[in-house]
Write a structure and sequence with these properties.
Layout lengths: L13 H17 L3 H31 L4 H13 L4 H13 L3 H8 L1 H13 L5 H20 L2 E3 L2 E3 L1 H7 L5 H17 L1 H21 L5 H8 L7 H30 L24 H15 L1 H12 L3 E4 L9 E5 L4 E8 L4 H22 L3 H4 L3 H14 L5 H4 L3 H14 L1 H16 L5 H15 L9 H4 L8 H5 L5 H19 L1 H14 L5 H7 L10 H15 L3
Parallel strand pairs: 3-5
Antiparallel strand pairs: 1-2, 4-5
Helix pairs in contact: 1-2, 1-4, 2-3, 3-7, 4-6, 5-6, 7-10, 8-9, 10-11, 12-20, 12-27, 13-14, 15-17, 17-24, 17-25, 19-27, 20-21, 20-24, 24-25, 24-27
């Protein structure tokens, strides 16, 4: 393999790929034995992996520079043409599920393999190709709008991420000024974002209607691979959060106000944990990557091998710059069995969070692509994948001195507070989407009002200090998942609860906790959600009392800390 920057790209011939899939389908139908059928399936897998790698490469390079006309054009080409593969891919899946070798495939790859294929047949259909193309176009348009936003702050040109650092300043006036600039940036594009979201809702509803779902929510759950639970399960989980975590975070905000010498925490105060400033990394990008190499080298033989691979082939893009897509993510180049980590470093502790959170995703991807022979089983659904990432944040606690020096304890405390306090926001994002798709004709103003009411329900401490745009509900726009990854965000909350269960064991028996974590990573998506959790002894978050049990120790640790 070459370094990421040297990987070649050639536009794929989609028409030829469609023809190749047709050849595989014909060969599969003529197969006289399971061995022959399996061989055809594995050949089709190679083509799947090749095309997925090309799509991933283009997507990464497009997000690295949204102003690059070449990769913008390639994204448009792939978004328009890759859906044309749906009929051929669906035909092969139907042949496996309904053909004479179904039981053989189930014995070979497990019953969950068949369940995944059956679910894909339910949501993949050539009838929705126009809508899939349109959804991709709108997603690219959203990314360009968000990435183009910048403002002047005290002589510095800042995007959203650049302003966040100033919102952690010890100077409250600076925090408030940065906050007002941040809010004004969103307000300046709010009409565009409202219009884009209207169009995304419309196209998603059209897909659900064509596929015979009662609403888009039902289709979204299927798209997310949620085969074990329903919106009703999630609603009960949200209520557990409201009754258990929301009061604890309210107490945490009161304690934070006293620590900062304030009467009440405003929104722009929430990120500042200590009056003399938060613990920031003691080095820049290169220093932190080197420190991460040492950390993963010490954590386990598996993590050492993984991170050495990442650094050897430069599978990172970490620093923010103009035109770069917002946020952070981990993706994969499956043909090379190579994860890739993308971020926007801003000089805060969030940079270290990326090197632990996204590295957790990358670590599981590295293992799954080497241990599991079938691509659809190499990764699980996102509520499991986020356990991989969030748990890695906690497993790396012992090495935080490398990144924060003598302020490592402060970082660990702030990180634990953040892990708990963000959960009510996560469930707010989830409930908002359930409300929106249950009432798709809502106006932009009605959506904002709905968001503000949900915010008050789960985050009663939230105070925007009179900012009209946010007081009227504009804050929902800052979450890109609502636009790009519908119904994803609750998976972070579910995963955090599971992670807290592992964290509780880490403090008692680190080796046992790591063994369970490693088992979960190695299992990939070979089982359903409930079965994966049961296999490693993690309670299912929907169970009565599960949230209270998982967070009890975390709340006690936060409230008994010296801070």
């Amino acid at each position: 393999m070459q370094k990421f920057s040297e990987l070649p790209y050639e536009r794929p011939d989609i028409a030829a790929a469609v023809e190749q899939y047709s050849t595989y389908n014909e060969a599969f139908r003529k197969a006289g034995s399971f061995a022959e059928a399996k061989a055809v399936f594995l050949e089709a897998e190679k083509l799947d992996i090749h095309l997925s790698t090309i799509a991933s490469l283009v997507s990464v390079r497009n997000t690295m520079d949204t102003t690059d006309a070449f990769y913008e054009a390639e994204m448009a080409y792939l978004n328009e043409n890759l859906p044309k593969l749906i009929p051929a891919s669906k035909a092969l899946n139907e042949a496996i599920v309904s053909g004479p070798f179904r039981a053989d495939f189930e014995r070979e790859y497990g019953r969950h393999f068949i369940a995944v294929l059956e679910n894909s047949l339910r949501v993949q259909d050539e009838r929705i190709i126009p809508e899939l193309v349109r959804e991709s176009e709108l997603s690219v348009e959203y990314s360009k709008v968000a990435a183009s936003c910048k403002t002047d702050f005290r002589g510095e040109t800042c995007n959203f991420y650049g302003l966040l650092k100033h919102m952690e300043s010890c100077d409250r006036a600076e925090r408030k000024e940065a906050f007002e600039k941040w809010a004004a940036l969103y307000e300046s594009v709010s009409d565009e974002l409202d219009a884009l979201y209207d169009k995304l809702i419309e196209v998603r509803l059209a897909m659900a209607e064509k596929l015979g779902f009662k609403d888009y929510t039902e289709l979204a759950y299927r798209n997310m691979g949620r085969l074990d639970y329903t919106p009703e399960h999630v609603a009960k989980f949200r209520e557990q959060v409201r009754t258990v975590i929301t009061p604890a975070v309210s107490r945490m905000r009161e304690a934070q106000a006293k620590r900062l010498g304030l009467d009440k925490i405003k929104y722009y105060d929430e990120s500042l944990v200590f009056a003399d400033g938060n613990a920031d990394p003691i080095g820049g990008k290169d220093y932190m990557v080197n420190a991460a190499s040492e950390m993963y080298g010490a954590l386990s033989p598996e993590t050492k091998e993984f991170f050495d691979f990442m650094t050897k082939y430069e599978l990172f893009d970490l620093e923010t710059r103009p035109g770069k897509h917002l946020g952070g993510y981990c993706t994969s180049l499956p043909e090379y069995k190579a994860p890739f980590i993308f971020s926007n470093f801003n000089g805060t502790s969030a940079d270290v969070d990326v090197l632990t959170h996204e590295a957790g995703h990358a670590f599981q991807c590295y293992l799954g692509e080497r241990l599991i022979p079938v691509s659809v089983l190499q990764n699980s659904t996102s509520e499991i994948c986020e356990i991989h990432s969030m748990s890695m944040e906690f497993f790396t606690y012992p090495w935080m001195e490398k990144f924060f020096g003598d302020r490592a304890d402060e970082y660990r405390y702030a990180h634990l507070c953040s892990a708990l306090s963000v959960i009510p926001y996560m469930v707010s994002v989830d409930e908002f989407q359930h409300v929106v798709y249950a009432n798709p004709k809502m106006s932009a103003k009605e959506r904002r009002a709905a968001w503000r009411e949900i915010e008050k329900k789960y985050m009663p401490w939230r105070d925007y200090d009179g900012n009209a745009f946010l007081e009227n509900g504009g804050f929902w726009m800052q979450k890109q998942h609502i636009f790009l990854y519908p119904f994803y965000y609750i998976d972070y909350a579910l995963a955090q609860i599971c992670t807290f269960s592992l964290y509780d064991e880490m403090k008692r028996d680190r080796e046992s906790a790591w063994a369970r974590y490693l088992k979960l990573c190695r299992a990939g998506g070979t089982m359903g959600y409930f079965d994966l959790l049961h296999s490693v002894g993690i309670p299912v978050p929907f169970e009565d009392g599960a949230v209270e049990k998982a967070v009890r120790g975390v709340i006690e640790e936060i409230e008994s800390a010296k801070y």
